[in-house]
Amino acid sequence: MSVEPLSADFTAAGQVTVDDMPRLVKEGYTAILCLRPDDEEPEQPKAAEIAAAAEAAGLQFGLMPMRSSERPDEEMLRRLQNIINDLKGDDAKARIYAYCRSGGRVRIAYDLLRALPDRKHVAAHKFDVVIVGGGSGGIATAASLIKRRPDLTIAVIEPAAAHYYQPAWTLVGGGAFSKHATRRTEASVMPKDVNWVHHAVAAFHPENDMILLEDETEISYKALVVATGVTLNFDAIPGLEETLGKNGVTSNYRYDLAPYTWELVQGLKTGKAIFTQPPAPFKCAGAPQKAVYLSCDAWAKRRVNDAISVEFDVAGPALFGVKDFVPVLMSYIQRYKVDLQLNSKLVHVDGEAKTATFERQAGGKTEIVTRQFDMLHVVPPQSAPKIVRESALANAEGYLAVDPETLQHITFKNVFGVGDVIGTSNAKTAAAARKQAPIIAENLLAMMDSRELPYAYDGYGGCPLTVENGKVVLAEFGYGGKLMPSFPKWIINGFKPSRVSWTLKKFGLPFIYWNAMLKGREIMLGLKRR
């Protein structure tokens, strides 16, 4: 097999086999990149086989098939570069082992990539619709718009090269899901008929129907959709950021840290485990306690639970925001012997000393309590991004000021919002964004056509609360805590832990996300007319 290092972090090689994975790990590679289509030769290993073996060995896997007779054009090379960027991520020590039949296609593609002209600056443009943010809400909205009106000119502004299915990170932290299965390239999920502007936004200028990119390029629009998501403010808790990923401090709210959660759970046999929940609002209202339940379930299965003291510090006054689900959740708090501390906010972490300090409210008084820990799982405070908070689009709390039903901005009528960034009282979940996207598509097009906005968002949010490995309480609710179950009780009773709900959480919802939501296939939504 031909092998040729093309740089310190990129190697061209011929066909690999599943048996090569341990060797490549030992040689310091972090990712495998396949440029070879399947079935070029009868005995050729399929890409899916290599991908599975790579994942099992802890290697990332990327796929960009190129025929031997095919000279990649600029668009293909841009996609390839995005895949390479995704495989490297933020890892300064990342090394990619790229293969085809003999290594020749890899070398040609690599040389063409190096000769590719720099396109950091995009030409000033005016689009029918500009969507800021290429996460779940932004991509789903783009797909819903294209489905309804294919001739629209749409730009999605997103600087990241990777796209994540974040709802599964709690399962990664519980040892029930692969980290790599939650991540794909942004290029692979971008609808083919939209323009991907691979840059960051510096400022909104809604009074001029324009946004400014960080390179000072102006992008104009007829309609704007803000889908930036929220910012995770780990640095808002002194001492936290510098100890994340070590000293027993972790968070399922980051792709790189969720596996560390499971590592800590597996390694802990005795001691103190503390879990935190920040002040609202924060995305995925159930995620902080899911980490508690999955960890406790794993310790119970290993019969070390009696030797581990578990504390759950919740900054708010209740375990869960919808009171109907509190009894079943409290039964698990009691079952796992969790010391539940309400009105207890994390304010400082000392990783080396392994102490966590809390500000606790009780009887109108505030006390400061410092606790030792062996494991600390933190959910950080969250806010709208700075570019939203400091813009004319923000409400008093810094979130996007939209009408809670139409999702149209209360001042700038050609601006809409989707997902976690909007200043509404619904739960910030992927399920909420899935329902919001087609409503925004319908209402935005009505606005452009000078018609009355036809649809209303009812605040729907779904929160599959993983109370043990194999069982989920499926909480579905709308504005004001109104119960909004999607299934008859004989299929899924939202007040009882269910294996059916677990199957939906682990297998059904990821499939719907990648194959329906992000592709404009709107199933089981029940949109409500105004």
Automatic annotation (TrEMBL):
Residues 6-115 form the Beta-lactamase hydrolase-like protein phosphatase-like domain. It comes from the Bacteria. Pfam families: BLH_phosphatase, Pyr_redox_2. Residues 127-248 form the FAD/NAD(P)-binding domain. This is Bifunctional protein tyrosine phosphatase family protein/NAD(P)/FAD-dependent oxidoreductase. It comes from Candidatus Kirkpatrickella diaphorinae.
